[in-house]
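Shipment paperwork, digital attachment
Item: protein structure file
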Amino acid sequence: MTQARLLLVDDEPAFRSLASRWLSDSGYTVETAADLASAREVVRHFDADLMLLDLSLPPTFDPMTTLAAVPEFASRPVIILTGHGDRELALEAIRQGAWDFLAKPIDPDMLAVVVRRALSKHQLEKELLQLKRGLGKEQALSRLIGASPSMEAIRALVQRIAATDVRVLVTGPSGTGKEVISRALHDLSQRASGPFISVHCGAIPADLLESELFGHTKGAFTGADRERPGLLKLADGGTLFLDEIGEMPLPMQVKLLRVLQEGTFYPVGGRELQHINVRLVSATNANLLDKVAEGSFREDLYYRIKGVTIETRALSERPEDIPQLLRYFLDQWQVKMNMPSPSPSAEALDWFISRPWPGNVRELRSTLESVAAVSQGRVMTMEDIALLHPQSRSRSVAALDSQDQSLEAQVRALEIRLLSQALQDCNGNRTHAALQLGLSRQGLLKKMERYGLD
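Attachment content:
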């Protein structure tokens, strides 16, 4: 097991020598420093697990200032060493983030106990954080729903690039989950503990967008009665998501380009340069190259933001994703409404799969929740759907909107319907359903996995 590494910061040479020997005898690797400036130099090459810090180091006796002097230890335990008269200062230091304190003269046995407990607690906290991050990553991927080849490709690409800071451009029709993909990129990245700030470039009036992004000083314009940080600053250390970036006015595109080039900007009305460190993810339902050609989008900005491009597809091109989306939205609906969630019958499932959904996932979810609200049983039937969509009663479910689908999509939809019907007829018995369909049990399981059928 690797030895724990400790940094002892104290301005008394005799104490440094004695305490260092005690800690070394206890099995630790120890480095020492006489003051905060030396401590900052040591941590450049010595990745310590814990710091022992004399509270009375010159030039300040303020515990907040002392603790902040070595920011590398913001996430590591710090044990304060004090004189007899510094108890109140030591307690204040603990309130400011220190783990514990010891009063001089130090007892070697007590020193060993406190250090061991601090390291043990810190290790448990690190393991808990890793578990939470792992769970967060699973949840992020679970929101990228679908069994279609296009969704599988998106999931694979998101996992490969999330840990990097490469800029990403997400393209595709409205309602296809571009923001969901952007959030997954953030949640799987090293910036996951930082902010995720979403800005819809077309929803903010052009004359307000600069102030919203860059912030403003007090008195910068009429109504600016106080200083306000912009969304760029709020996103510092995290991810900035610019939705529908193709609708950003040209003057703002110039200013955004400078931010991307230099990582700096001035608030509206301000003279103090602001520095930021953000990852940019952009999204658009427009063809930006067409906008470049017509002069409404800057070519240099396009090449700055495109980085890796992720393309989403309309729901009509991937009907095999619909069963999984239905199940996901019904589970959410059940939690939100605190009532049993109905599941669609084979006929109702076929109806959902067969529709073209011009509004894509957004329209699918809205329609599903409306039908679930009128459904009175555990099974969502065509009668429930007909209450909201009367035209569905008089038209063949299999033929509904089929003229808008490709032959390939119709074949997939028919196969899902046949699988669902067979499973329902056999009360979920997969062996019997496979025999009914003329498949092996393994063949049935592969098709069920492909289409997200449970």
